[in-house]
Amino acid sequence: MLLEPKITAFIPTKQVEKSKQFYSNVLGLNLVSEDAYGIEFESNGCFLRIAIVHELKPYPFTVLGFKICDIESHVKSLIVKGVKFEKYDGLAHDNLGIWTSPSKAKVAWFKDPDGNLLSLTESPL
After folding, report:
1. What is the DSSP string of 21-49?
2. 6-38 pLDDT, tens per residue?
C-alpha cells in the first residue's frame, strides 16, 4: 500500500536560514521549495522537510541518517566545512570520530545548527 509513494522525512528548526545554508551548502542537498512553514530538500529521490517551529528540544538520538559509501572521505569533507563529529563514552571512535559497530558498519554522528543529531553510515560489504 505505502510502498509506492516517496517518503518525506521531517526535522524541526528554529533557525531556518542557518538550516537552509547547512543542508544546502554543507551537506549538498538540493533545495526544492521554501514557504512560511519550512524548507524542503531533495536527495536521490527522497525528500527532507525542515519545519519551522517556535520551540525545540533536540532528541539525544539520531533523527536522520545517510547511508553512504566511503565514510572516511565524507567525514573529511564535512570536517573541512566546519562540521564537528560527536564522540560517545563507551564507543571506540577512530581519530575522525568514526565508530565501527559489531556488525562492521561504520557510523559517524554530527549535529545540525539546531542540535538535531544526524549520522553517516557505511554498511559492511
Report:
1. HIIIIIS-PEEEEEETTEEEEEETTEEEE
2. 889 999 999 999 999 999 999 999 999 999 999
